[in-house]
Amino acid sequence: MWDNENDKLENIMRLKQELEKDLKKKGLLKEKKTDQKQQTIDETTMKRLKEAVTVSAHIVEERSLTPYDINAQDYDAGLDDVIKTLRVFFTRTDNLQRKTVFDGLIKLLSGDLRGAVNTFSQSNLIEARYNLLLAKLYNGEDVSQESAKFLKDNPDSIYPILLLLQNELHKGRLDGVEKILQVLAKKSRFWELVYAVFSGTANEDQINNAIRERIFASLVVLLSVYVDPTREYPIQSHTCLNVHKALLRGETIQAPNWCPVGVVATEARRYLSGYRPELDRLRRLEKYPEARLLLGFIYYNEGSKAIAKDYFERFENQVQSFDVYLKPLKAGKIGIEQFTKVVRIDSSFEKVAEKSSIIQVLESNPQKDIYVVYKNLEFVRLVFSEEYCAVVNK
Hints:
Keywords: Coiled coil. The protein has helices at about 5-25, 45-55, 65-75, 80-90, 95-110, 115-120, 125-140, 145-155, 160-170, 175-185, 190-200, 205-215, 215-225, 240-250, 260-270, 280-285, 290-300, 305-320, 360-365, 380-390; strands at about 320-330, 350, 370-375. It is mainly α and about 400 residues long.
């Protein structure tokens, strides 16, 4: 998976050849003769050929029946490329169960959640059941009871555990996420690394073990930079990877409105630069801890302490456990710098020894900048990638 360009090219050429055969059977593409002048192909045919040739998601049909499995194979494939490849699979496969699942996945990833539910319900594959409950969850339905039954019926499968994790993640329940991560960490070296980065305890051995598992390759590379900043960044271009590379480098971030980390970093940088942040953009994402925390600091800096306190309390109740660190205030806006880049806590920071609320720390340290450290759900969201945030937050 680390060196898959040749494999991608072979897949592209194979898809192109199969599509050409299909077009010839339908009379849309004629054989060229050596003495014949080049003929003009109609626009529809040209478009279909172009789509087949430009497919870039490096995924295998039989292992691409859930968003999770797609990400595991080719994490850096963009959402549009994944949908395009699934359309090719849908057209090509003779397996009716897979065809149904591919149809449902296309609807799910395109945001047609009700259509996805209806389609997945027509298949009895375990992957279809997982996808169906996922679509219901993304559509705002309570799938707690169905998830429990799914686990009871399939105790040895990873899909029910993933669904339980995504349910807790979707509801922003950090304690529930942590408990399920502990289970997954025992099943996979990759998940062991995710849990370790989430907990702030990751080490080199866990990185190397995750690399050997050969899944989520680009994500593993990205996570390794959070553990060891001297490591090289992943070279692929992908929304999640690009946002985090910019965050790690302290660079300007270009992020869509559905990306919590990107939006928070962008609005924090805007506020530090003296501009008014787009509060509506942040409020759309305020179910996420980082958005609540940033909104709290913005309102505090603007003198709206009652609103700030409310956001801080909601953040504290959500994450439950956190540490607060202090430094001399340089940026002019209290608590904002931590959202614009990855801050690595060292001896220059003063840890607040007593457990206090954020508002209490602020009132006791008026000339200090504040940094809040907590277990970050973003490291779990990253696993589910664009296929999660782009659908749920649109």
